[in-house]
Amino acid sequence: MQPIASFAASGCEPFWSAELPHSIPWIVSRIAEDEQVVLNLIQEELPPEASIDKAYLKSIGLRSMVIIPIQVGGNVEFVISLSSFRRERSWPDELLKRMRLLGEIFANILIRKRATIRARSLGEEIAHIARVTTMGELAGALAHEINQPLAAILSNAQAARRFMTTGDPDMEELTEILKDIAEDTERASSVIKNLRRMMKKEER
Q1: How many CA atoms lie within 13 Å of 36's alpha carbon, on the beta-carbon side?
Q2: What is the spatial order of strands in the sheet that 37-39 belongs to?
């Protein structure tokens, strides 16, 4: 339990603090069971098993309090509480109903916020899967498109080597082979450039 927001009247210390849950274990156990805690006279109404709670609340001068747990998605997510230090007071049913209604409004806001975050997360996951799938398809197409010119370059290079080892190579034929190698190199380079261009568009 951590305080989200609090208000204290002039001259009163804020009741909720990070250490509070350890000081009121019985009350916290009731909250965990989704039971509202309504105490008009704290020192008289707390049961014997709440001795730690009673001693702590007496030490800080708390006289009356009400704590209403609010569920979100089947679990108690937060509470709404009112406390009185200056005098004992009663907490009418109408006030308790209004406090619970206010808590349910907050709960609905929290549910919508979580749904929005989840939807955004799912959208990002779907986009990631789409990118991975697209990249897989691109990788297959890329391998096919590049393997063809690379195979042609290798074949022509081997042919050129054989021509060069002959005593009297046909220079015209050798020139054609080198021309084919240059064209296939340009073709492979073009495939890679197109892939880079597509990746930049994807990043945007």
Answers
A1: 20
A2: 37-39, 64-72, 75-84
Whether pTM > 0.85 for this model: the answer is no
Between the CA of residue 91 and those of 13, 24, 30, 82, what are the distances in Å? 21, 20, 18, 9
For residues 44 and 91, is the Cβ–Cβ distance under 8 A?
A: no
Percent over 70 (pLDDT), the chain: 88
Q: Which residue has the tokens 């290079």?
A: 157
Element (H, E) at 39: strand 37-39
Cα distance between residue 153 and residue 127, in whole Å: 38
**CA pseudo-torsion sign 82, 83, 87, 89:** positive
Cβ-Cβ contacts under 8 Å for 196 (sequence gap 6 or more): none
